[in-house]
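Exercise: predict the fold of this chain.
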Amino acid sequence: EDVGHVRPLLGAIGARGHVVVTTRRNLGSAQWARLRLAPLRLGVLDRLASVELLTTLTSSEDRDGADRLANDLGDLPLALEQAGVYISQRGVGFDHYRDLLAARFGPTASEAGEGSDASRTIATVWQVTMDAVTERSAVAEQVLDALAWLGPEGIPEDVLWPLGEEPDEVAEALAILSSYSMITRDGGAVAVHRLVQAVTRDRARREGTGSESLDRAVRLLSLSAPDDPMYGVDGWPRWNVLLPHLDALLAYLPADHQNRNILRLLHAAATFRQFQGQLDKTIQLVQRLLADSRRVLGEEHPDTLTARNNLAFAYRSGRR
């Protein structure tokens, strides 16, 4: 957790050996350089190694099933090992475990298996880590809660700025989350592993804060969406970055939601996609927009009528 934990040990060893220090904290290269340590960041496994690990742990020859499960688990070694133990002990297949994750993520992510260390499950490890993060920054918790409902791809850090009273407050929160390997930062964008997202969503649902954090994610995307999606050329690259996150968010939005921010966002996104020639996705968005507008605003509201007109226009464009 802190360089102070290893500093006295390094002094005792001197030049009489080599030292390997393992930590989940990413404290920055300067901290380690002061101790004459060279940081080596370990990422996820490559897909071939993930499949090999799963098939070895389970004695299964279903490499295609292992590939699908590895994709769901984001090639994370801890999650792959946990899945392999469960599958081998229960005698189920890879796709059965995938179904369990989809239907009962919380209990499945907490299941260590007979003879395994219960503290080494993905649910427990990240809950302990998140507790440590929350002690240091309440904004960091809000940041991760919002990111949990978006896509795992990188999203511009400035999208998250409204979560703090000023951008520096959010920047500090991102630094804390990055130091605990809860997020990755690269070139002004922040990304989250899909299992970190799943654990965070599951916790929010259990604590009854899921609706609040989902609404927060909607508000952030709505505030960050560029104006004039039809002719605002300068905003097009940003739209292309934001759209995967909107698509991910829509998958979690309840069918009976009353969120008006999402209506404005859907209209703008559909406009952008339509004039980019993405007609199939445009029609899907406007169909959802029309259904939501009818429920939230009523049949005769001007925005509902506009959505109906836009859907007709999209249908006509698709037949050309």
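Check your answer against the key: The first strand starts at residue 155 and ends at 156.
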